């Protein structure tokens, strides 16, 4: 079922893209496929961004309500629900985006490597999809998509991941004025871990795995930065109004 629902559709779209790319460049096909998937899932990721911006906007009011109704949990719960509706916050939006992203990464990896790429698995092709005549696993003749240890690509992954995380942490809810020092310190530590450690981890992952993985990460991170800019500008305008 996993193959039929996720791997096979992605595999067929990827084969179609390779067929129309100059010289059958699989690297360009990965970039195109990543952008296409992110466009299809744009509403889901936009909802996740909107939720975090809304949570940041509602945080001062929520902190005041927690202090005011700390001995009345029923009233506090009602106020919290009202604030969620007021700022259009969906607590489950972020979870959905993470799950979908993880599923797509696994599907893309299986489609590219489990099936012995660049050999085309005709058994997975739909009847209207034809195998490309030319398949190149060399991205512009520079990056071998099937081999690991690409330093420049790993550095690009770290940079784009760092920018994406920096934008993410900028919209994350911050502890209120009444928050304890321990809570503030914990929040700062979490943000620093995300900002400095995660890009390094992703760079190591990119260096360890085949170049195709790095191309996917750089494209996905770049799209995330662009999407973040568009969504934040539109939502912050609405909040200001």
Provide structural commentary:
- The chain has one domain.
- By secondary structure, the protein is mainly α.
Outline of the structure:
This protein is mainly α. Helices cover 73% and strands 2% of the residues.
List keywords for this structure.
mainly alpha; 241 residues
List the helices and strands and how they pair.
Blueprint: H1 2-20, H2 26-40, H3 42-68, H4 73-86, H5 93-114, E1 138-139, E2 143-144, H6 151-171, H7 181-208, H8 211-240
Antiparallel strand pairs: 1-2
Number of helices: 8
Order of helical and strand elements:
HHHHHEEHHH
| Mean residue pLDDT | 83
Proportion of residues in extended strands: under 5%
Instruction: Name the shape in a single word.
Output: elongated
Strand order of the largest sheet: 1-2
State Rg. Answer: 22 Å
Separation, N- and C-terminal Cα atoms: 47 Å
Characterize the main sheet: 2 strands, antiparallel
Stretches where pLDDT is under 50 for at least 5 consecutive residues are: none
């Amino acid at each position: 079922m996993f193959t039929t629902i996720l791997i096979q559709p992605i595999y067929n779209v990827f084969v179609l893209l390779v067929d129309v790319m100059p010289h059958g460049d699989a690297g360009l096909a990965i970039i195109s496929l990543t952008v296409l998937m992110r466009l299809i899932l744009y509403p889901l990721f936009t909802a996740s961004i909107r939720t975090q911006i809304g949570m940041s906007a509602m945080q001062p009011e929520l902190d005041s309500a927690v202090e005011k109704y700390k001995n009345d949990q029923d009233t506090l719960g009602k106020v919290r629900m009202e604030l969620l509706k007021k700022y259009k916050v969906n607590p489950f939006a972020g979870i959905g985006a993470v799950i979908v992203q993880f599923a797509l990464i696994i599907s893309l990896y299986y489609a590219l490597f489990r099936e012995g790429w660049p050999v085309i698995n005709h058994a997975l092709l739909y009847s209207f999809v034809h195998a490309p005549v030319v398949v190149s696993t060399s991205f512009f003749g520079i990056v071998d998509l099937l081999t690991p240890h690409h330093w420049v690509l790993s550095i690009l992954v770290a940079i784009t991941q760092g920018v994406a995380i920096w934008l993410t942490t900028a919209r994350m809810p911050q502890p209120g004025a009444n928050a304890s020092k321990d809570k503030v310190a914990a929040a700062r530590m979490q943000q620093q871990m995300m900002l400095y450690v995660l890009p390094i981890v992703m760079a190591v992952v990119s260096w360890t795995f085949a170049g195709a993985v790095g191309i996917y990460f750089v494209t996905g991170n770049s799209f995330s930065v662009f999407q973040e800019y568009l969504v934040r500008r539109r939502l912050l305008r609405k909040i200001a109004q």
